[in-house]
Write a structure and sequence with these properties.
binds magnesium ion; binds 2'-deoxyadenosine-5'-diphosphate; four-stranded antiparallel sheet; 16% strand
Length: 149
């Protein structure tokens, strides 16, 4: 089953939007299989954002993600990687569509609330970086027949 890595960044936690954001994934019908609150180390932040290492915003990005607690999650479901990106919206919240998490709840690219893996391979890599196998819980929601024909 397809899985993706989602993180509510420190602004989402500080602004009290954890429940709001988790609720959107729950209401869509995806299955939560991993969840923890953590302070992100410099090392984890730099590994997570390694692809952006040469970008001018890299230092600020690492400072932002390490600036307070983050809610790290793994969500499961058919097509969850791409669908989560749609729920999240465009990187710049000012251009993100209304109805998306960033479009509804944020205004600044440097405070865009949430991370979501951009591809299936990236998701597998990020899940392995943030979670151990023992921290992931596979389960079959009893609601499943009402979500899948
Ligand atoms: P996304 O988070 O939508 O996957 P990304 O992977 O391109 O976007 O970039 C990672 C984060 O880096 C993004 O959430 C916000 C920040 N970022 C991206 N482009 C930026 C830019 N041009 N200026 C400032 N921050 C930027
Ligand atoms: Mg990205």
């Amino acid at each position: 089953m397809e899985r993706t890595f989602i993180a509510i960044k420190p602004d989402g936690v500080q602004r009290g939007l954890v429940g709001e954001i988790i609720g959107r994934f729950e209401r869509k019908g995806f299955t939560l299989v991993g969840l923890k609150l953590l302070n992100v180390s410099q090392e984890l932040a730099e590994s997570h954002y390694a692809v952006h290492r040469e970008r001018p915003f890299f230092k600020g990005l690492v400072e932002y993600i390490t600036s307070g607690p983050v809610v790290a999650m793994v969500w499961e479901g058919d097509g969850v990687v791409a669908a989560a990106r749609k729920l999240i919206g465009a990187t710049n919240p000012l251009t993100a569509e209304p109805g998306t998490i960033r479009g509804d709840l944020a205004i600044n690219i440097g405070r865009n609330l949430i991370h979501g893996s951009d591809a299936i391979e990236t998701a597998q890599q990020e899940i392995g970086l943030w979670f151990t196998d023992a921290e992931l819980v596979g389960w079959e929601p009893t609601l499943s027949p009402w979500l899948h024909e």
